[in-house]
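DATA SHEET
Item: assembly model
Revision: 1
Owner: S.N.
Input lines:
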Amino acid sequence: VRHARRTLTSYAAFLFDVDGTLVYPERAIPGAAHALATLKARGKCVVAVTNNSSLSRHDLGERFRSFGLPLEDHEVFSALAASAQYIAHESPHARVHVFGNPGLRTEIERVGLVATDDPEADYVIVGAHRGINYDGLTQAMRALLQGARFIAVNSDRMYVGPDGGMIPGAGVFVAALERAVGRPADVVIGKPSVRLLHEAAASVNIDPADCLYIGDNPEADIAGAHAAGMDALLVLTGVASAAEECTDPPEHVLPSVAELAQMFDAS
Ligand SMILES: [Mg+2]
């Protein structure tokens, strides 16, 4: 049984989906910058949470700041950062074979893990990999055959690329290695797994029950937040245009994140 609805201003941490919630493809959602600044001025934790499996937290932060959003590097959390943090919790200082873009290596090393390209590894971590080649695939496959734990950053099939056409997602690279070694990944970190939101809450040391997750997608965001033990706020700037589209109703609905600032100004 869900508890009676809490006031929007009562949560300790506000975790934001990115696309359709904080940003359109190449610019911020109007009012998003002011909303983030207002929350931070009230002492709230804010975190932008993305399934991105290519860019380091700093590179993501730079992208958000270029859109005018007041987000520091530590207020950006991705499936890459979550994967690194997840492995570090399981096995600090583990040797991790990195199969992915340069941002993946950055995040692995940032949490004190040892990144390696050779098959002598405790883990193989797989994200989107623009530099994929036959030798790299062979080394990753051998590491898995030797018993390394298989971590998938996410299982996304494809994304819209910079030219507007579709590009392969991290799940494509995961599937190649799953096929090669004849077993599924041991762990998938990114959405729709609850691990991304759990690691995001852990990154700010706040219990999931005291986090509000804000997103535009009824299935991925609202149901995902509830599965992770968080209340949810639906905004209507992306996938959903009405709250009725949610089979799992959110605790809160607003036209956009801009109205979050007004809720605080009125309180
Ligand atoms: Mg979204």
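QC remark: Residues 157 and 169 are 5 Å apart (CA to CA).
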